[in-house]
């Protein structure tokens, strides 16, 4: 990122997305994902949505290994469209319980070597029609209070917001949803 300060040079960022934990028990696969991510020794880890298909009660066992993901500066989570087919707010709460910071139309900074980088996250567009108050993508809310001089990484499950992100001066948008580049 051109605006990234020298103190953040070499920042290691790992992304998990579209895990779609569902009726087939993939707990062992989840454990392997965590092992691989932890071997990366990332400073920041993000889950970019579509965590699971179904309720927390039905999928908690498969998601539980994600509580063991290690990151030096932060672990961030955003919703995907599949969270809104069930219990989106329950998933946000559950990931917080597992030690992840839900970026529900908000941002959090990370700092290293005297320099700062903001990670902002927005809800999936499906949230706007979910009937859940306050759900749906709100980029202005996610960026509220961020100085124009601070570099920003945006987590947005669907790449639909890329034009809006560019217009807002986002330095990098990370999305999932398209299932490209899957690693099994």
UniProtKB/TrEMBL annotation:
Pfam families referenced in this protein's UniProt entry, alphabetically:
Metallophos
Q: Which domain of life is it from?
A: Bacteria
A GO MF annotation of the entry reads: hydrolase activity
Domain Calcineurin-like phosphoesterase intervals: 11-180
User: What protein is this chain from?
Assistant: Metallophosphoesterase
* Lineage per the UniProt record: Bacteria, Bacillati, Actinomycetota, Actinomycetes, Pseudonocardiales
């Amino acid at each position: 990122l051109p605006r990234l300060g020298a103190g953040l040079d070499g920042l290691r960022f790992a992304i998990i997305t579209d895990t779609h934990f569902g009726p087939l028990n993939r707990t062992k696969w989840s454990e392997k994902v965590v092992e691989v991510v932890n071997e990366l020794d990332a400073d920041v880890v993000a889950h970019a949505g579509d965590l699971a298909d179904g309720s927390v009660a039905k999928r908690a066992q498969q998601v539980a290994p994600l509580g063991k993901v290690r990151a030096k500066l932060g672990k961030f989570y955003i919703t995907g469209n599949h969270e809104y087919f069930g219990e989106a707010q329950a998933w946000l709460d559950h990931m917080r319980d597992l030690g992840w910071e839900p970026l529900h139309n908000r941002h959090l900074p990370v700092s290293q070597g005297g320099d700062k980088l903001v990670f902002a996250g927005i809800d999936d567009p499906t949230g706007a029609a979910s009937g859940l108050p306050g759900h749906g993508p709100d980029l202005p809310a996610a960026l509220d209070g961020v100085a124009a001089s601070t570099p920003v990484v945006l987590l947005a499950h669907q790449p639909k917001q890329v034009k809006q992100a560019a217009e807002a001066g986002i330095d990098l948008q990370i999305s999932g949803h398209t299932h490209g580049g899957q690693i099994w």
